[in-house]
Amino acid sequence: MACLEAKITGTQHIYMLAKAVHFKELAICTVTSDGIKLSVEDSGCLQAFAYLQRELFHQYTFKPPSHGGEAYIFGVNLSVLVLFLSPLNIVEHGGRSSMEGGSRRSTLGGGGGSGGIGLRTGHALLPSGPSNSLIIRLQENEDLNLILEENGVVMTCQLQGIEMDEQPYFDINQSSLCYKVIMKANWLRDALIQAIDVCDLATITASTEPAFLNISAEGITGSIEANFNAHVDVVESFSSVAYTRCRYRSNHLKTALEALSLADKASIRSNEDGLLGLQMMISCEYTGRTAYVEFRLLPVVEHH
């Protein structure tokens, strides 16, 4: 019996959530009775999480580990997963094809038609509508089996579990927050894009009196400053208990832009150590649910 069997109809948002954190090849996959979490880390300074809550699935059957504990935790090749879920696949040749490399194997098979399926970007084979379905099965050896079906055409993928070092966990406890702002995601994204384009460091400032959030950058090509007053329409809620000013690497902030482009709302918050949390709330059209993607960034420590 599989440790997990989950089924979803309309796979576009699963693809988008996985792609939103795809800035590294490998991810840690955590499977629990509450859902699936993909975690990606970079250089001990940046973490990203894509949460696939069980409510996003039409069926979610979970069997706890026989060795005790409440979760299965293993590494997966995120690049292969995103490629498999991508709507940009094409009927390429007959028979069966496979991808080999390291600790992964993806076997793609055609069914009910002329020829098989090969993974390749360029043309759409699987529409983003709700007519396709995905089955996820987790075996006890922590191999992840995926079955994607569209109009009688079936694609299968086996992702072998990878043993990975434990990632550090950046805890951004609610009780230690200096500020938290919930706002329209597209406005936050536009402000970050402008700051990223100017300099390799961006400054984020929050103040209590007057209450505002400021994103700025200054470089050889010029300077940019975006100021969000607590009472403007694009800000849904604003709370701040202390003046906070920290700098963050632009290439770390850039990793969050994909998720921000998908989101309706975003939360930006920081604790007293300058740990920055960006959480995006993404509406899943075919389930009526909201999914979450989160990024946590350490500030740049400046030595004087």
UniProtKB/TrEMBL annotation:
**Main subcellular localisation:** nucleus
InterPro entries for this protein: DNA_clamp_sf (IPR046938), Rad1_Rec1_Rad17 (IPR003021)
Give the GO terms filed under biological process for this record: DNA damage checkpoint signaling; DNA repair
Q: Which domain of life, per UniProt?
A: Eukaryota
GO cellular component term of the entry, any: checkpoint clamp complex
Enumerate the subcellular locations listed in this protein's record, separating them with semicolons.
Answer: Nucleus
- Transmembrane residues, as ranges? none
- For whether the record's keyword set contains Nucleus, the answer is yes
Pfam families, per this entry?
Rad1
> Keywords on this record?
DNA damage, DNA repair, Nucleus
Keyword field contains Aminoacyl-tRNA synthetase: no
User: What protein family does this chain belong to?
Assistant: Belongs to the rad1 family.
What name does UniProt use for this protein?
A: Rad1/Rec1/Rad17
Species, as recorded: Syncephalis pseudoplumigaleata
- Taxonomic lineage of this organism? Eukaryota, Fungi, Fungi incertae sedis, Zoopagomycota, Zoopagomycotina
